[in-house]
Amino acid sequence: MTAARVRPVFEAADEAPALPAVTLATGPGTPLLCFPPMMAPSGPHYFGRFAPVFAGERDVTVLPHPGFAPGELLPANREAIVRFQAEAVQRQAGERPFVLLGYSSGGWMVNAVAALLERQGTAPAAVVLVDTYTATNSFEARLEAALRERGSTSEAFELLTGAQLTGQGGYVRVFDDWKPDPIEAPTLYVHATFPPGEPTALETEDRWQPEWPYPHEDADVPGDHFTIMEDHSESTALAVRDWLGDSRGDHL
């Protein structure tokens, strides 16, 4: 986090150039606008196995966070990045309704952006949080241990660069005191059912599963915090697809 402090920053949304969105699936339905985690390695790759389930049905578009590539500015504060990403959402959606989805810490951004857009009168049609966590249980300790284990084996860690690592430090700093906002949009919370780093569901003595403090519907999917978007990504996508479709009765 110390190294992040020497990187150039933007203090207002219009001080940073817009980043190109990455569309991984296309279709006529309500678009799904996705935020990746704000932890390294951040990027669209998290949704590479998730998006194909929606091909032909709806756009699945990833909105990258600035500061994770060389030469990009980092946000100086949370307001700057939330407004930057709210503008990215509005630019991508245009006049169409849209759904916001965030995976892991990307859900922090989804919640903050959704709250801002609701105040502005351009609310999302729905919000999906995929294993987004708050510091309310033992999940973070389990997650850190699993990250250390994955560090020597995961292909994702080949994507780590100096910009990625200092970018993570910058986002940890600006979201350090973040707390979720209540929002009006219908919300789905997708739970991983395996503890972090475990290949199956296990009986545990601690309440490790993350919890969301505001009204929402739940969907449990196989996999741990990582594999729900890797080996088990199809199950995760199908849970989201079902909730957005006939099961909600409004065909979002």
Question: Which SSEs are present, and which pair or pack?
Answer:
Elements: E1 9-10, E2 22-35, E3 58-62, E4 74-75, H1 78-93, E5 99-103, H2 106-120, E6 126-130, H3 139-150, H4 162-174, E7 187-192, E8 217-221, H5 233-244
Parallel strand pairs: 1-4, 2-5, 5-6, 6-7, 7-8
Helix pairs in contact: 1-2
Notes on the structure:
This protein has 252 residues and is an alpha/beta fold. Helices cover 27% and strands 17% of the residues. It has five helices and eight strands, in the order ββββαβαβααββα. The chain has helices spanning 78-93, 106-120, 139-150, 162-174, 233-244, and strands at 9-10, 22-35, 58-62, 74-75, 99-103, 126-130, 187-192, 217-221. The strands form two sheets. A five-stranded parallel sheet has the order 2-5-6-7-8. Strands 1-4 form a two-stranded parallel sheet. Helix 1 packs across helix 2 (106-120). The radius of gyration is 17 Å and the shape is globular. 41% of the residues are buried.
Strand content: 15-25%
Structural class computed from helices and strand pairing: alpha/beta
Gyration radius (Cα, Å) is: 17 Å
Spatial ordering of strands, largest sheet: 2-5-6-7-8
Average residue pLDDT: 89
Number of helical segments?
Answer: 5
In total, the number of strands is: 8
- Helical percent range? 25-40%
Largest sheet: 5 strands, parallel
Distance between the termini: 40 Å
Uncertain runs:
none
Shape type: globular
Order of helices and strands: EEEEHEHEHHEEH
